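Q: What structure does this chain adopt?
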Amino acid sequence: MFVDASALVAIIAGENDGVSLAARLDTAEPRYTAALAIYEATLGLLRIRHTTIAAITALLDDFMARSRIQTISITPEIGRLAVEAFARFGRGNHPTQLNMGDCFAYACARSLGVPLLAKGGDFPQTDIVLA
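A:
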């Protein structure tokens, strides 16, 4: 499973759908995310927690270790898949209007051949398999 920033934030921040996302996370092996998703999650948690970047970084590092989520590198293939995702589902090209982070999450999951763990109504409008 590839874990999107939206799922990381929802689980760690205890949002309403965080419990169901955490349950889905617990059932999947292996688990992946990317530095871009961690960046997005850091910013999201900073807005919610109103604390320091160091505190959020430690929180995310601990969560990633406990959850056994591996961080993958963005390869040229993933970059191409993200551009293709934008062409198909990105802002101005499709009602889903995926943003850059969404396009990369889509591309990472597609490249790895794993389902995507994310919240919201965007990804169900694409052809990506959801966790």
